[in-house]
Amino acid sequence: MSNLVFRNVRHQYDGVNSVDIAHLEVGAGKLVCLLGPSGCGKSTTLRLAAGLESPIEGEVSIEGEVMANDEIFVGPEDRRVGLMFQDYALFPHLTVEDNVAFGLSHLALAERRARAGTMLETVGMAAAARKYPHMLSGGEQQRVALARALAPSPRIILMDEPFSGLDVVLRNRVRDETLKLLKEMGTTVLMVTHDPEEAMRMADEIVVMREGEIMQQGSAGELYNRPADGFIAAFLGEVNRVPARRNGDFYETDLGPIPISAAIGEGAVDEILVRPEAIRFLPVVDPKAPTGEVVLSRNLGAFSLIDIRFESGFQATARVASFYQPKVGDRCSVSLNLSGVFIFPRPGNSE
Ligand SMILES: Nc1ncnc2c1ncn2[C@@H]1O[C@H](COP(=O)(O)OP(=O)(O)OP(=O)(O)O)[C@@H](O)[C@H]1O
């Protein structure tokens, strides 16, 4: 069953479209990430779901109930959604327990306390119930904010860049803990991030937005391995942009011939996108394979990044297992794994 559904939802700021979504669904118990560059409409989409903005067209519904359309508008306080925004800080003058109990005013005092206690236990913060937010670390504050968002048993949690205020090490830990908890509780989540890695780590489904519209949606694997266009391919991970020239049924490139059958659609091609891990590094020169010279070699622990310059002057980066540690100046050959090679012809331009 779908929890949150957008149908033909359009929103404008000052007469300009900020969001124009034909269809968006967040299934019950799923974690969906809205991903895209700054200004693409992610936060506005979340605010439309929360009831902090209203659409000029279309319909937003939660659990089958209309929240917003031409005639109906349900305010944020009546949507039973949990909000966890980047600037949605804890109330500094309330204790941790009172922060978590804040959204439970419909319950009797004893029940509020009991529910707040249970939620604090769930996030591992029961011992801090009487403390004030300034006495907690960033990660602990985040856990309390999560307890506060979950306490009223919302139908969906809406998160806007919830981990962006945390440093890198803490962010990974808090993110993993949060994900585990959300999954254990079966919570439905719509989360905004501009960080592809974060989206890939957390989401059941990623929705890539650009200029207010949805460009592609799918699992991390689908988007990374079968991106719909060059923008999405490059947004989700590094790519080499390899110059290509058509020759019969192949494109000639410095990385070797690539069959035209690998192209997605028809039209002119002057560059082919190749993921760094799709370049197989051959430390011993193979006279039958494309050959170049190592110009940069960086060992990043789990893998190495090796920049190779070919005869034409073109340089490509290969990502290889870190036991390969070639030196600058070494000669090497390469071969390609076509599953990391993307050809997006420009439609309308024949070759
Ligand atoms: N209060 C506002 N008034 C006018 N225009 C706005 C307002 N808020 C956002 N916009 C514009 O609407 C568009 C979508 O903004 P939105 O904040 O939804 O994007 P975003 O993808 O969340 O960006 P970011 O990642 O930078 O937060 C942008 O062009 C932005 O400039």
From TrEMBL:
Classification via SUPFAM superfamilies:
MOP-like, P-loop containing nucleoside triphosphate hydrolases
A biological-process GO annotation: quaternary ammonium group transport
Cite the Pfam families for this sequence.
ABC_tran (PF00005)
Q: Boundaries of each ABC transporter domain copy?
A: 4-236
Going by the entry's taxonomy, the superkingdom of the source organism is recorded as Bacteria
GO CC terms, sorted: membrane
Q: Sorted alphabetically, which keywords does the UniProt record give?
A: ATP-binding, Cell membrane, Ion transport, Iron, Iron transport, Membrane, Nucleotide-binding, Transport
Q: Which InterPro entries match?
A: AAA+_ATPase (IPR003593), ABC_SmlMolc_Importer (IPR050093), ABC_transporter-like_ATP-bd (IPR003439), ABC_transporter-like_CS (IPR017871), ABC_transpr_FbpC (IPR015853), Mo/tungstate-bd_C_term_dom (IPR008995), P-loop_NTPase (IPR027417)
List the GO molecular function terms: ABC-type ferric iron transporter activity; ATP binding; ATP hydrolysis activity
Supply the name of the protein. Answer: ATP-binding cassette domain-containing protein
What organism is the protein native to?
A: Sneathiella chungangensis
Q: What is the lineage of its organism?
A: Bacteria, Pseudomonadati, Pseudomonadota, Alphaproteobacteria, Sneathiellales
